[in-house]
């Protein structure tokens, strides 16, 4: 499995991946995005920014990169970067299907992405991903599975995904929403010919949203690699929006709020990879300090008190504007 390359790595930052959601398209829901990206959101500007982030991440030991069909041109930007650096062969590349990007490179679209987990969408998006990433794709995940997702019960889809697995692609799923734990447990029960279909799970987990933790531990125990997304709660755990207690712990460690927030996730015994959603090289460097942040029991207890009720957390997330 491709994640064995990360599991055997000795560089701590190998367990931090780079997610391209924030830089693959001009609009996203991260707080502070206007400040981070500035006014130039053209294709060339974001391609250049993505390549700068990928260069910096690789130089500092990051070996997992996360894209998606709905992240604008993230797959295209990543494919261009890989083609220009044929000597790099130790990157693990993941992408996702199930959402179609519909904003047409604008920030004020009525709908930025449309969700569909049907076989036809899978076949179309799988071909689109293959055209860009070819045999560099290691992991293909269903994007944002919920407990009622047809992707959990569609036997034809399962057969198509199993065919892809037979050709060497690792198959996984991501989750969103207040019922992530239910979705994870339902996905763990999906089998094809008696064998588990999914080998990875990518879920939201952070200091404010911890409800998926027991199910993620179960997934880890079942042999899945756990990838954590939205560790910064879409900017709510970064300065200047971070809760006061997080700021206090960060001051005690002499690191940024972002590094402390990500370090909290790295401490979980079930964590395989934690994604940085950095939009700037400076943010990335600060995020990577998470690998060396040491938190004591008192600090962990204080941070644990930040957790919100899941539905309240997801209601707040749903109200964030697309910048």
Automatic annotation (TrEMBL):
CDD domains for this protein: AKR_unchar (cd19098)
UniProt xrefs under SUPFAM superfamilies: NAD(P)-linked oxidoreductase (SSF51430)
Domain NADP-dependent oxidoreductase as annotated: residue spans: 51-307
Name under which the protein is recorded: Aldo/keto reductase
Coiled coil region boundaries: none
InterPro entries, A to Z: AKR2_Oxidoreductase (IPR053135), NAD(P)_OxRdtase_dom_sf (IPR036812), NADP_OxRdtase_dom (IPR023210)
Pfam families reported in the protein's UniProt record: Aldo_ket_red
Domain of life: Bacteria
């Amino acid at each position: 499995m491709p994640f064995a390359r990360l599991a055997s790595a000795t560089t701590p930052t190998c367990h931090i991946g780079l997610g391209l959601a924030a830089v693959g398209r001009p609009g996203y829901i991260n707080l502070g995005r206007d400040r981070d990206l500035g006014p130039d959101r053209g294709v060339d500007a974001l391609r250049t920014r993505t390549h700068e982030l990928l260069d910096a991440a690789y130089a500092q030991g990051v070996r997992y990169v996360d894209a998606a069909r709905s992240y604008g041109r993230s797959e295209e930007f990543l494919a261009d970067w890989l083609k220009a650096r044929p000597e790099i062969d130790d990157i693990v590349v993941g992408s996702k299907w199930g959402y179609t990007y519909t904003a047409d490179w604008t920030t004020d679209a009525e709908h930025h992405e449309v969700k569909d987990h049907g076989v036809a969408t899978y076949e179309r998006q799988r071909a689109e991903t293959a055209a860009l990433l070819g045999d560099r794709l290691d992991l293909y995940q269903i994007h944002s599975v919920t407990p009622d997702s047809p992707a959990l019960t569609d036997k034809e889809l399962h057969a198509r995904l199993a065919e892809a697995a037979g050709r060497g692609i690792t198959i996984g799923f991501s989750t969103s929403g207040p019922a992530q734990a239910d979705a994870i447990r339902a996905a763990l029960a999906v089998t094809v010919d008696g064998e588990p279909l999914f080998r990875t799970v990518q879920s939201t987990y952070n200091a404010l949203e911890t409800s998926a933790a027991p199910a993620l531990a179960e997934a880890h125990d079942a042999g899945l690699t756990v990838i954590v997304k939205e560790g910064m709660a879409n900017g709510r755990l970064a300065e200047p929006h971070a809760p006061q207690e997080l700021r206090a712990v960060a001051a005690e460690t002499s690191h940024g709020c972002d590094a402390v927030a990500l370090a909290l996730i790295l401490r979980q015994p079930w964590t395989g990879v934690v994604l940085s959603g950095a939009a700037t090289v400076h943010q990335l460097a600060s995020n990577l300090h998470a690998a060396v942040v040491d938190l004591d029991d008192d600090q962990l207890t204080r941070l644990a008190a930040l957790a919100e009720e899941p539905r309240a957390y997801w209601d707040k997330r749903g109200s964030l504007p697309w910048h």
